[in-house]
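Q: Please design a sequence for this.
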């Protein structure tokens, strides 16, 4: 079961690492920027494979920044 959780833990670790480097306010700004870029890429349909994960990572970064 832990092998199935590995991708989620890796993404959460990456977000935590970015958060520790940037701080709360910069984390929210960076998350919003990632979401905007992801939405722009998703609008092109062909790059939705890249855009959707960017939106999700931006949302998780904002949540992590706000909740501490």
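A: Design:
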């Amino acid at each position: 079961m832990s092998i199935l959780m590995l991708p989620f833990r890796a993404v959460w670790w990456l977000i935590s690492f970015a958060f520790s480097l940037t701080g709360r306010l910069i984390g929210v700004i960076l998350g919003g920027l990632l979401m905007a870029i992801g939405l722009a890429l998703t609008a092109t349909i062909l790059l939705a494979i890249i855009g959707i994960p960017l939106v999700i990572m931006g949302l998780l970064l904002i949540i992590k920044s706000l909740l501490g």
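Q: Thanks. Anything notable?
A: The chain has three helices and no strands. The mean pLDDT is 87.
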